[in-house]
C-alpha cells in the first residue's frame, strides 16, 4: 500500500491565481515564455 501525497496547493488554485495575475499584469508574450523555458 502506497500512501498518496496530496499537494498543498491544488492545480485549480494555481490556475485561478495565474488567471488573476494575468488580468492584473497582462498575459506573458510568447517570446518571453520561450526564452524562459530555454534559458530558465
Automatic annotation (TrEMBL):
Q: What are the entry keywords? A: ATP-binding, Nucleotide-binding
Origin: domain of life: Bacteria
Q: Which GO terms describe its molecular function?
A: ATP binding
Protein name per Swiss-Prot or TrEMBL: Bacitracin ABC transporter ATP-binding protein
Species per Swiss-Prot/TrEMBL record: Niallia alba
Question: In the record, what lineage is assigned to the organism producing the protein?
Answer: Bacteria, Bacillati, Bacillota, Bacilli, Bacillales
Amino acid at each position: 500500500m502506497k500512501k498518496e501525497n496530496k499537494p498543498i496547493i491544488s492545480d485549480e488554485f494555481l490556475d485561478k491565481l495565474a488567471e488573476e495575475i494575468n488580468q492584473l499584469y497582462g498575459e506573458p508574450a510568447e517570446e518571453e515564455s520561450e526564452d524562459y523555458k530555454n534559458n530558465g
